[in-house]
Design goal:
With 356 residues, this protein is mainly beta. It has one helix and 19 strands.
């Protein structure tokens, strides 16, 4: 009897192999480590001295970083439909810690485009257009592009979101709808449905690409702008957030140049007072590729609504690609803050990336 049971189990296992093989499952990772020296004429955003880090953003080391590990899977459902899933975790290779989750979602892809449900980057994000993206020299959070801002800015993630992406000839459309579930907890008896939405449209006019994006997250409780709970147990969110951007990129041969403008409205909904994030960002960046080397140059400004909050960003660097999976880079970034308590920060360093 035992022998027959083992044979039956073995047959069942063999029959299950084709079903498992039909699923495309991939494990991938990318790691980056940088050595950076910070100096300046003030207290600087990061603090002076030497750092081992994975990118810098908003005055924080290991912020806006490159490293992570991801598990992706897809199933062909037939009739042009594909189910997919992704679970990605952030990593800090400088001390091998997990600093949080990135994309975690399931979705469906077909002729209509793709729709996904879970934690994800919003449609507003365009940090990848920055040639210094995810390094200590990057624009986001350093004076030329809004940072993560609880998932509503560039290169971060929002929970409980529905995302859509589709391409129609030369036009690509990306949209995000983030559910505000804060009214469902804390003892409240209502749901104010202050959800967030983001929309981006890209137009490919090769060799020029143009994009326009907008986010509305007024009183949205899914980000770090929530105000806690009031005496009745209802969420108390007193901040309004809206952002709009327009950008363009030109690429031909070895040359590339991009320019982008972002305007951020972030104010106390009760008093109407602006916060430190309110203002306008502008940036321009250029690249020149010579063989395995790419030379990069960037300039940007943050014109803040509040006094002593303006920032000027300048960066110059070079990247050498040994192959598609391994590269090294180096350069300098300077963020000049009007805030006298911070002053001018200069970052000089080099880093290495490995993708596998």
């Amino acid at each position: 009897m035992m022998k027959k049971t083992l044979i039956a189990a073995g047959v069942a296992a063999v029959m299950a192999v084709p079903a498992i093989a039909a699923a495309d499952v991939q494990l991938s990772a990318r790691l980056q480590t940088e050595i950076v020296n910070i100096s300046g004429d003030g207290n600087t955003a990061n603090g002076k001295g030497w750092y081992m880090t994975d990118a810098m953003s908003g005055g924080n080391v290991n912020s806006g970083n490159f490293s992570g590990v991801a598990l992706t899977a897809s199933h062909d459902l037939g009739n042009g439909l594909t189910a997919f899933a992704k679970a990605e975790s952030n990593l800090l290779p400088t001390n091998w810690t997990n600093s949080g989750t990135r994309d975690v979602f399931v979705g469906l892809r077909g002729g209509f485009g793709s729709v996904q449900f879970g934690r994800q980057t919003t449609a507003f994000a365009t940090s990848g257009k920055d040639p210094f993206h995810a390094t200590f020299m990057q624009a986001r959070g350093n004076g030329a592009m809004i940072g993560a801002f609880g998932g509503l800015g560039n290169g971060s993630y929002v929970d409980n979101a529905i995302g859509y992406s589709g391409k129609f000839e030369m036009v690509s459309v990306n949209a995000t709808f983030g559910l505000d579930q804060t009214e469902n907890v804390g003892g409240g008896d209502k749901n104010n449905a202050e959800h967030m939405y983001a929309l981006r449209v890209n137009v490919d006019l090769s060799p020029v690409e143009i994009w326009v994006a907008h986010t509305n997250a007024n009183e949205y409780g899914g980000a770090t702008q929530t105000g806690g709970f009031d005496a009745d147990g209802d969420p108390q969110d007193t901040r309004d957030f809206q952002s709009t951007k327009v950008g363009a990129e030109f690429k031909t041969g070895a040359f590339g140049v991009m320019a982008q403008y972002e305007t951020i409205k972030h104010e106390n909904a009760t008093t109407g007072a602006d916060t430190a994030n309110a203002g306008d960002f502008i940036m321009v960046a250029g690249t020149y590729r010579m063989g395995a080397n790419t030379f990069m140059l960037g300039y940007g400004q943050f014109d803040a609504e509040l006094d002593n909050r303006d920032v000027t960003w300048v960066a110059a660097g070079v990247r050498h690609a040994f192959n598609r999976n391994v590269s090294v880079h180096g350069g300098v970034r300077q963020s000049d803050y009007d805030n006298p308590a911070v002053g001018k920060e200069t970052a000089v360093g080099a880093g290495m990336r490995v993708v596998f």
